[in-house]
Amino acid sequence: MKRSQYAPIAIGIASLFLLTSCGASGQGAPTRNIKQVTDGVEKDSGSIFARDILLVNQPDGSAVLVGTFINEGATADVLNSMSINGVALKFDKPSYELLQNKPVIFSGPTSNAHAVIAGLNAAAGSRVKLNITYGSTPGITMDVLVREKDAIYANVG
Question: How far, in Å, CA of 66 to CA of 56, rounded?
Answer without folding.
Answer: 7
